[in-house]
Design brief:
Blueprint lengths: L2 H20 L6 H8 L3 H7 L5 H4 L4 H9 L7 H15 L5 H13 L1 H23 L5 H23 L6 H12 L5
Helix pairs in contact: 1-2, 1-7, 5-6, 5-8, 6-9, 6-10, 7-8, 7-9, 8-9, 9-10
Length: 183
Amino acid sequence: MGKREQTRMRLQDCALELFERQGFEATTVAQIAAAARVTPMTFFRHFPAKESVLLDDPYDPLIAAAVAAQPHTLAPLIRVTEGFRQAWAQVPEPDGDVVRRRVRIAAQHPGLRAAVAANSARTETLIADALARTGVDALPARAAAAAAMAAMTTAMFEWATGTGLTLGTAVRTVLDTLEARDD
């Protein structure tokens, strides 16, 4: 791991510790930078804003491509859920502690929940656009994308608040629910 990645991880670790100890709102970028032994400018080289420590999601393009690659004969919601399954299979189970802490902090803060919703809306648009490019009408494309993103957010929040599920199990459960699978 290079120096840049080490610095980013140190910033994230310090931010999570401070958010958990004193709260998201009470924590400043300057405090995070000081705890990580870097300048605030260095923080902003790694994260465009304080909430980015919690909300960065690099998987959106992977998800949209996986949805677009599903057989066009499938119903839009099934294409989306199968696309999520395919994308999920391509990434390793995330480092549970770091990701769980990030999601738990976001789930417990109303302003961050709104930011999660905004991130989800961007992902919904990417998914709906991927479906539309393959001939799905706009309304069914948006409905399928919105349903899947709501389910995925529910899975993440449920997992992060300590239900004893792995993230993979939570994701499979909500996708199975959307597809009406009982197995």
